């Protein structure tokens, strides 16, 4: 008769908790189990053979279950690694995205700063250029006024020279006329004196 107390037990795993549990019958129990004789009972050889076969199958099943548990453990470990890798990757992607956003924001701010500075320099340069153009225009206007003054001065000088030349010419004409009147004979009745005066006039000339 089967005695559960003789069982050495076999380990299994509770599907709900994942904790190992004790089984009532092990393959060794099946092989070592002995039954009492009874009238008109089963054939001992057949029972023993059947129990041995069941024990083999049971042992094979336990081995397969243990292998499966190991596979599940490895898979769970790999799954945990994958999850950790996924978590790290997600964290890295988030950090990279934030870094990219920060870089983009900094680049945009730097671009705006450069544009503002360029606009400021352009405005300042334009103002300086405009002021310089106004100075040059004033200088040009001043030079034009000076040119007009110089032209007026030159024209006045030329006119003065012309007036002086005309005066000199008129003076020369008057001088010649005076000389002619001075050397003209006084009367026609004194030829000798007139002849003498003509000679003196010719000598003076």
Which sequence of SSEs, written as H and E, runs from N to C? EEHHH
Helix tally equals 3
Low-confidence parts, pLDDT < 50 over ≥5 residues? 1-12, 201-205
Structural class: mainly alpha
Rounded radius of gyration (Å): 72 Å
Content of β-strand? under 5%
Give the strand line-up of the largest sheet. 1-2
Termini separation: 193 Å
What about the largest sheet?
2 strands, antiparallel
Number of β-strand runs:
2
Return the average pLDDT rounded to an integer: 78
Overall geometry comes to rod-shaped
Helix proportion range? over 70%
Summarize the structure.
The chain is mainly α and about 200 residues long. The protein contains 3 helices and 2 strands.
Question: Could you describe the 3D structure shown?
Answer:
- Helix content is 78%, strand content 4%.
- By secondary structure, it is mainly alpha-helical.
- The protein has a domain at 4-87.
- A two-stranded antiparallel ribbon has the order 1-2.
- The model is unreliable at 1-12 and 201-205 (pLDDT under 50).
